[in-house]
Amino acid sequence: QGVDFSNITELEVFQEGPARVDPIANFEDAGLHPAMLNNVKLAGYETPTPIQRYCLPAIKMCYDVVAVAQTGSGKTAAYLIPILNALMGKAKKLAAPRPNPAAFREGIDQAVRAEPLVVIVCPSRELAVQVFSEARKFCYRTMLRPCVIYGGGPVMEQRAQLQKGCDVLIASPGRLIDFMNNPHVLSLRRVRYMVVDEADEMLHDDWKQDWDTIMSGGEIEEGNVRYMLFSATFPKNCRDLAKNHLAETHVRLRVGRAG
Ligand code: ADP
Ligand code: MG
């Protein structure tokens, strides 16, 4: 694809707790499902970038991850590939309707609302659309259905899309909260992975409150969810977010530029 990763050579890996991640050298070593490996090849990816070499095994080992690496270093695939790969085996089982007494009492039809397994929160519409197009490539033949929602987009169309079924939800925070407030459209009770992309862009003053709303308002089952923070920089408010919401034994990866 003509992407030059040769300037990304210096990798400082900081790991907290008992985490010990051995980087992979090739996508073939990542233990990916054949369909996922095929999607990686179809995307034109031949070798993993430094952040991907560490992120794929770290996420596979079920750690929460903070990954800080410069723009263009392949962070999107670093979380999409291992998360989608982990879910594809479980897609059918997790997507099968489970009785939810509360929803039943309120007369909510669970068959027509979205109950995603992954939520990827993106600060801007541009990023959300970009991540969605990447997610579509990696969802091919996995049974996982990606969906994107963002402010300024057509609400009814996004709603209809959600109600067709969504396993992988890419969302801007505002629109995510809007839809979460409507239990007929969206529930986060099945979420297994919560990713914040471009976390440093997201952390304006209101974001703390948005994050609390997303965490508490979505019936998220804390113990069942892995949290991931991806960013180009790691300012104080990002560190606070990580401290407050990520598991104590999370893995922190930082990729630097050589020279
Ligand atoms: P970041 O989020 O770190 O800014 P992106 O995930 O947007 O970076 O990736 C930058 C570009 O590199 C995208 O066009 C993406 O498709 C491409 N890319 C990512 N990983 C690889 C890889 N392993 N091999 C080839 N191209 C890749
Ligand atoms: Mg990115």
UniProtKB/TrEMBL annotation:
Helicase ATP-binding domain: residues covered: 56-252
Motif placement: Q motif: 25-53
Highest taxon listed in the record's lineage: Eukaryota
Domain DEAD-box RNA helicase Q: 25-53
Region forming the signal peptide: none
Family under the similarity heading: Belongs to the DEAD box helicase family.
Protein's name in the database: RNA helicase
